């Protein structure tokens, strides 16, 4: 089904990845030490010590090294992540984000707590309170909520 060239570079776990295809639905929690690609549906919490890429939908909370949402939806919170990226204008998180940094091109409906920076592109919207180290907003970005910028 997948050729080695189809898989992204896996860093420390170069040849290890878990893939949930677009025709698959998982009901239950997922815990992995390798990279995870979700193209299907997960109804449960996800924990990884590596990168989590979502192109499908997840209903549950997520913790990972870095979390990337393509054209995807997350109904739950990101409990811990070094970096969160919403790549597409249709990427959606309905829950809070806790981590170091976030680049957003999609929509977030929840509070955002980041030690470092939050970048909102022109296609992004955020409805919720923000507590960050720095904030960058492009013209056209929507932000509704309290903003607290704590410089170190």
Structural account:
With 152 residues, the chain is mostly beta strands. It has no helices and 24 strands. It has one domain. The protein has strands at 17-20, 25-27, 30-32, 35-38, 41-43, 46-48, 52-54, 57-59, 62-63, 66-69, 73-75, 78-80, 83-86, 92-93, 97-99, 101-104, 107-109, 112-114, 117-120, 125-127, 130-132, 134-137, 142-144, 147-149. The strands form 4 sheets. An 8-stranded parallel beta sheet has the order 1-4-7-10-13-16-19-22, with no helix packed on it. The termini are far apart. The model has no long low-confidence stretch (mean pLDDT 92).
Strand portion: over 45%
Number of domains: 1
The ordered H/E elements are: EEEEEEEEEEEEEEEEEEEEEEEE
The general outline is: globular
Topology (SSEs and partners):
Elements: E1 17-20, E2 25-27, E3 30-32, E4 35-38, E5 41-43, E6 46-48, E7 52-54, E8 57-59, E9 62-63, E10 66-69, E11 73-75, E12 78-80, E13 83-86, E14 92-93, E15 97-99, E16 101-104, E17 107-109, E18 112-114, E19 117-120, E20 125-127, E21 130-132, E22 134-137, E23 142-144, E24 147-149
Parallel strand pairs: 1-4, 2-5, 3-6, 4-7, 5-8, 6-9, 7-10, 8-11, 9-12, 10-13, 11-14, 13-16, 14-17, 15-18, 16-19, 17-20, 18-21, 19-22, 20-23, 21-24
From the structure above, extract its key features:
152 residues; mainly beta; 8-stranded parallel sheet
Brief sketch in words of this structure:
This protein has 152 residues and is mostly beta strands. Helices cover 0% and strands 51% of the residues. The chain has strands at 17-20, 25-27, 30-32, 35-38, 41-43, 46-48, 52-54, 57-59, 62-63, 66-69, 73-75, 78-80, 83-86, 92-93, 97-99, 101-104, 107-109, 112-114, 117-120, 125-127, 130-132, 134-137, 142-144, 147-149.
């Amino acid at each position: 089904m997948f050729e080695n060239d189809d898989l992204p570079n896996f860093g420390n776990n170069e040849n290890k990845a878990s893939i949930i295809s677009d025709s698959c639905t998982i009901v239950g929690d997922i815990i992995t030490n390798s990279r995870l690609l979700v193209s299907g549906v997960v109804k449960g919490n996800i924990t990884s010590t590596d990168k989590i890429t979502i192109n499908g939908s997840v209903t549950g909370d997520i913790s990972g090294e870095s979390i990337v949402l393509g054209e995807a939806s997350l109904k739950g919170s990101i409990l811990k992540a070094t970096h969160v990226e919403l790549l597409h204008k249709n990427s959606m998180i309905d829950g809070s984000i806790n981590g170091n940094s976030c680049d957003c091109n999609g929509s977030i409906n929840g509070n955002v707590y980041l030690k470092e920076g939050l970048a909102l592109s022109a296609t992004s919207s955020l409805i919720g309170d923000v507590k960050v180290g720095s904030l960058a907003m492009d013209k056209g970005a929507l932000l509704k909520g309290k903003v607290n910028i704590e410089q170190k």
